[in-house]
Design brief:
With about 130 residues, the chain is α+β, with helices and mostly antiparallel strands. Helix content is about 25%, strand content about 40%.
């Protein structure tokens, strides 16, 4: 693991959340993107080397919609940048962690991603990210 890549925050209204985080961070979001396969719209803010990803559901059956229904708005995941996502998946599995994705999939911000089960991360959904 190289560094924390971003913190993902689930929100009900992406535009309202963009305004809130613009006021908090004193900066505009630099990118929005839809990840159709996950049923989510994303918005990214960057402060120094740190990024925040806001996530809003585009479908009622999406993971973010389910998260919002169960837990409400808030931190959804912590993402870590890796050099070799397949190697990290193998390493984590060998340590006994359960992966929600056996194979990496397309994520936002030009990344391929895989998630670790939150029960194995003390309630935190861990995302592995690799640059495409």
């Amino acid at each position: 693991m190289k560094k924390i890549e971003h913190i993902g925050i689930a929100v009900k209204d992406l535009e309202a959340a963009n305004r809130t985080y613009k006021a908090i961070l004193g900066a505009e979001h630099y990118k929005t993107e839809e990840v159709d396969g996950e049923g989510v719209n994303t918005s990214f803010f960057k402060i120094g080397d740190n990024k925040i990803e806001l996530l809003a559901a585009t479908r009622d059956d999406s993971p973010i919609a389910k998260f919002l229904e169960k837990r409400g708005e808030g931190i959804h995941h912590m993402a870590f940048l890796v050099d070799d996502i397949e190697k990290e998946i193998i390493r984590l599995k060998s340590e006994g962690f359960r992966l929600l994705n056996e194979n990496p999939k397309q994520g936002a911000d030009n990344k391929i991603v895989a998630f670790m089960h939150p029960k194995d991360g003390n309630g935190v959904l861990v995302e592995l990210c690799q640059e495409k």
